[in-house]
Specification:
Largest sheet of chain B: none
Number of helices of chain B: 8
Shape of chain B: flat
Strand content of chain B: under 5%
Number of helices of chain A: 10
Distance between the termini of chain B: 43 Å
Structural class of chain B: mainly alpha
Number of strands of chain B: 0
Order of helices and strands of chain B: HHHHHHHH
CATH class of chain B: Mainly Alpha
CATH topology of chain B: MetI-like fold
Distance between the termini of chain A: 35 Å
Strand content of chain A: 25-35%
CATH superfamily of chain B: MetI-like
Radius of gyration of chain B: 21 Å
Number of domains of chain B: 1
Largest sheet of chain A: 6 strands, mixed
Helix content of chain A: 25-40%
Order of helices and strands of chain A: HEEEHEEHEHHHEHEHEEHH
Oligomer: heterodimer
Chain lengths: 251, 226
């Protein structure tokens, strides 16, 4: 592909030479990453490698000090105004769910639709029920989050994010806090979402999921993208020693 | 009311009680002023303290630090006696007492409430932000309702401190229970010795504070169970 073609292509996410420091410590080092619409990316790596920090920069939960980041055509930078507009287009699912315990499952899904998208109560409820059905828990809609299992809570969190009808979904270790028997119900939900053509960036160690769903797997270590490749290539023929060591430890 | 009290406790003590209870209403008004004024201003500074703007936080911190560090008695002297004398203005005791207790209460309450807000996990903020909600939307719909549970017991507990604190306003001639009680106790009348009057006043203060203490305890229990 020539440079002009590359420049014209529209990316869902575009990260160029991005670096981030916590004080003197450089957590992200010269990150370059582009994601096309509909692409599914899995990011893995040892803890402290900066993978969560990277995706948290994409919806401005974290700021970065150097480089260029654009998400859905919005350029992100420190101290930017109207960051909410960017976030409405970017859904995020957290390791610890972050459901609101003071609201019912339904209201968790309705709140931001009403406040941020100004949807009517009726419309918001309808959309919420629609997505709760998609994650297969419409019958729990009147319960409070703490009354649900971890897997159910995470599915609610996914439905809540989808209610905003985002263009990109970020997953930050969505199954790491779950009991083993609940991992699959969440992964199945994510696979179902991938089938709809959603642009997804998932930080996860679920390698089966990566193989099945990802268009690309990215391996990070020490704040650097060490390797990125198609899943088959990545797992069967890793290029770097650090990747090999990591895969040896988790597979 | 006086007649009933006279019938219950005899003419002398009935009259005394009537005077004391009459004065108690001013204690209640002053307490309510402090609750409402201090609550509203306290709420304002709670929000300022957590707004993600450095200089705003710093202003709030200074305010809270200042009025938490100054003894209530000194505030009363300063506003009730110091300012009127120095600037040659007339400040009625009820106003000086109301302002002093409001400042005192607001500084303390905003500290308590800030603590309660910060006890809500950071992930709740992030959950709200990720959905595109603004700072105030997250604060009012997600964080504050959860913080309320934490904040109620210490808030009610402090209301008891405020009620007792109003007794200091007698020193700038505010006509509350303390001032009238002290007058009667100093009157040299047989049967109105300090040893008799002060315990009666203590019972009145107790009956104002005790229900609040019980309420706070009950609330604590209910919140611990849920």
């Amino acid at each position: 592909m020539s440079d002009t073609e590359a420049a014209e292509e529209k990316f869902a996410v575009e990260v160029r030479a991005m670096s981030k420091w916590y004080g003197d410590f450089r957590v992200l080092h010269d990150i370059n990453l582009t994601v096309k619409d509909g692409e599914r990316i899995v990011i893995c790596g040892p803890s402290g490698s900066g993978k969560s920090t990277l995706i948290r920069c994409l919806n401005h939960l974290e700021t970065f000090q150097q480089g260029y980041v654009s998400v859905n055509g919005h350029e992100l930078n420190e101290g930017m105004k109207n960051v909410e507009a960017v976030r409405r287009d970017v859904g995020m699912v957290f390791q610890s769910f972050n459901l609101f315990p003071n609201l019912t499952v339904l209201d968790n899904c309705v709140l931001a639709q009403r406040k941020a998208l100004k949807r009517s109560k009726l419309e918001a409820r309808e959309i919420a029920m629609n997505y709760l059905e998609r994650v297969k828990i419409p019958e729990q809609s009147d319960k409070y989050p703490t009354q649900l299992s971890g897997g159910q809570q995470q599915r609610v969190a996914i439905a809540r994010a989808l209610c905003m009808e985002p263009k990109i979904m970020l997953f930050d270790e969505p199954t790491s806090a779950l009991d083993p028997e609940m991992v699959n119900e969440v992964l199945d939900t994510m696979i179902g979402l991938a089938d709809t053509g959603m642009t997804m960036l998932c930080v996860t160690h679920e390698m089966g999921f990566a193989r099945e769903v990802a268009d690309r797997v990215i391996f990070m270590d020490g704040g650097v993208i060490v390797e990125e490749n198609k899943p088959d290539e990545f797992f069967d023929n890793p290029q770097h020693n650090r990747t090999k060591t990591f895969l040896g430890q988790i597979l | 009311m006086t007649e009933i009290l006279q019938w219950l406790f005899g003419e002398f003590y009935g009259n005394m009680l009537s005077v004391l209870l009459n004065a108690t209403q001013w204690t209640i008004y002053l307490s309510l002023t402090a609750f409402i004024g201090g609550g509203l201003i306290g709420l304002l500074f709670t929000v300022l303290k957590i707004v993600p703007v450095r200089w705003v936080q710093w202003t709030a911190t200074t305010y809270i630090w200042l009025f938490q560090s100054i003894p209530l008695l000194m505030l009363l002297f300063l506003i009730g006696l110091g300012i009127p004398a120095f600037f040659k203005v007339d400040i009625p005791p009820w106003f000086a007492a109301g302002v002093s207790l409001t400042l005192f209460t607001s500084a303390y309450m905003s500290e308590v409430w800030r603590g309660a807000l910060q006890s809500v996990p950071q992930g709740q903020w992030e959950g709200g932000k990720a959905l595109g909600l603004t700072f105030m939307q997250i604060l009012t719909s997600i964080i504050a309702p959860q913080a309320l549970r934490v904040a109620i017991p210490p808030t009610v507990g402090f209301m008891v401190q405020v009620i007792k604190g109003t007794s200091m306003a007698y020193i700038i001639d505010y006509n509350d229970l303390m001032r009238w009680g002290k007058k009667i106790a100093n009157s040299q009348i047989d049967g109105a010795e300090p040893f008799i009057v002060y315990p009666i006043m203590a019972v009145i203060y107790f009956s104002l504070c005790f229900p609040l203490s019980r309420w706070s305890k009950a609330m604590e229990k209910r919140l611990a169970n849920s």
